[in-house]
Amino acid sequence: MTTPKKIETYAVNTWCPGCGNFSILTSIRKVLANLSNEGFDLHRVAMVSGIGCHAKIVDYVDVNTFYSIHGRVPPAMTGIKLANPDLTVIGHSGDGDAYGEGVEHLIFSAKRNIDLTYIIHNNRVYGLTTGQFTPTSPTGFKGRSTPMGSPEEPLNPIELMIASGATFVARGFSGKIKQLQDLIRAAIDHKGFSFIDVLQPCYTFYDTYNFYRERVYEFTGQEHDASDRTAALAKAGEWAYREGERIPIGIFYQVERATYEETLLRGRIPVKLSPKDIRPVLEKHI
Length: 286
Ligand SMILES: Cc1ncc(C[n+]2csc(CCOP(=O)(O)OP(=O)(O)O)c2C)c(N)n1
Ligand code: SF4
Ligand SMILES: [Mg+2]
Description:
Largest sheet: 8 strands, mixed
Oligomer: single chain
CATH superfamily: Thiamin diphosphate (ThDP)-binding fold, Pyr/PP domains
CATH class: Alpha Beta
Bound molecules: thiamine diphosphate, iron/sulfur cluster, magnesium ion
CATH architecture: 3-Layer(aba) Sandwich
């Protein structure tokens, strides 16, 4: 039997005590342990991270991992998936990583509907570089780069992903760990681009625990039709960063569509092809 403990590594954890990243780590280990106990070979998992506090997660999970560069988790995942579509590829980014430096890669992965699971540790701050604002920081956020308060409106990643073509779009909260595990499992099971924005308080530079605890509410498929794009966008717009609003967490949108690798590779597995056989495939599409 695989327990979450069995997929720990020897690396010393350097996150601050109280960091929301711990719940995401616990959740992914639990989901992978469950998959393993159902007969899934964990050697078929490839986990990719960007740069930031979130990125250290790849040091703490004993599967194949790849520490990429800032904002480039989607291209790294795409390369892995296209080389070997038999792999289950899971990415972790921060809000700066995914919505700042890497936003164009995020949009194009969703547009292509490549079969990846992408988990964003959205603490709404640059954690590792000690507290600068990000695209999801609130208006007026006072950080190292905005000492007078950020004048910008934050972006809504859920709306962005639905508009970009992602076929699975969810939001979780690191303080609701059971639901977070269910969301991660559903995202992995979904065939296509699966995106989860996880509200993850940064205890040291932007402590939002109480803010979220007072406002988040879970919704299920019984209360919301996730196949309805208009309903999904309406639900995504419920939290527009205004006072008094509640914050929905759950699966906003989920539909089926052909994946990029199905269309491109049509069952071929490039790592198992000889250079002679892969050439015509590449020449046809590139
Ligand atoms: C191309 C590039 N730009 C800037 C940096 C510096 N840098 C390292 S981590 C980081 C912020 C990470 O913030 P986020 O993605 O939100 O992750 P967190 O630390 O909050 O988990 C920045 C700007 C870098 N490493 N590479
Ligand atoms: S700086 Fe923030 S995000 Fe980074 S480990 Fe500490 S609490 Fe977590
Ligand atoms: Mg961050």
